Amino acid sequence: MQKLITGVHDFQNRVFDKHRELFERLSQGQNPEALFITCSDSRINPNMITQTQPGDLFILRNAGNIVPPFGATNGGEAGTIEFAVSALGVRDIIVCGHSLCGAMKGILDPDSLKDLPSVAGWLSHAQSTSRIIKENYCDLGLTDEQFLSVAIQENVLVQIDNLRTHPAVSARLARGAINLHAWTYKMETGEVFCYSHECGQFLPIEEVSVALPNTEKRFAYAI
């Protein structure tokens, strides 16, 4: 805890003054460029990965970067998405999974969650991911590492599909006023991959410059 308190003092005494103009402007309101949905994992820092400043991203975080289908839960995800889209007018939504994801390990090994009933209940919103893995990848002879990579990728695409069930999102998709992006972040190397509709796979982000279409068929495979 002392590390955090020391950090607060450093922020107040050194960082805030350096960026005072930015914070004064932010005190007048926010106008984020994108809604960034990612995992709660402490090793993931959306602003560091994207090199953005406070005010640039509206961030939604939870275990497994999950977006429950509209009406499936009373959690805060639906309200956060609605506010970002309808009130703040973001034009881009990014769902970003990451390597070594514990939530995805839990989906692949449900028995590991027997002492974590709340986690298991939350991950039930990713049952489509589990079903896709079981029915499409079990006979491919993948290693455990490849299975995890596949689960991370497929889960991002499942959450993109779930996003489309939210009325605020679907309404703007219908008129081309919002873009959806499926990303994965490899923390071991700092690489970011983006799903390419044309290739049907996740590719290095610098090779993919377009958002996902409003509807699509896809079949991701391990990188």
Provide a descriptive summary of the structure in words.
The chain is an alpha/beta fold. The chain has two domains: 1-28, no CATH class; 31-207, 3-Layer(aba) Sandwich (Beta-carbonic Anhydrase, Chain A). The chain has helices at 2-18, 20-26, 46-50, 77-87, 102-108, 117-123, 127-136, 144-163, 167-174, and strands at 34-39, 57-62, 92-98, 179-186, 191-196, 201-204. It has a six-stranded mixed β-sheet with strand order 2-1-3-4-5-6, covered by helices on one side. β5 (191-196) and β6 (201-204) form a beta hairpin. The longest helix is centred in the C-terminal third of the chain and has 20 residues, at 144-163. The termini are far apart.
Keywords:
alpha/beta; 223 residues; 9 helices; 6 strands; 2 domains; Beta-carbonic Anhydrase, Chain A; single chain
Question: Would you summarize the structure shown here?
Answer:
By secondary structure, the protein is of the alpha/beta class. Helix content is 41%, strand content 17%.
The tally of beta strands, per DSSP, is 6
Mean pLDDT, as a whole number? 92
Estimated helix fraction: 40-55%
Spatial order of strands in the largest sheet? 2-1-3-4-5-6
The topology string of helices and strands comes to HHEHEHEHHHHHEEE
Which CATH architecture of the largest domain would you pick?
Answer: 3-Layer(aba) Sandwich
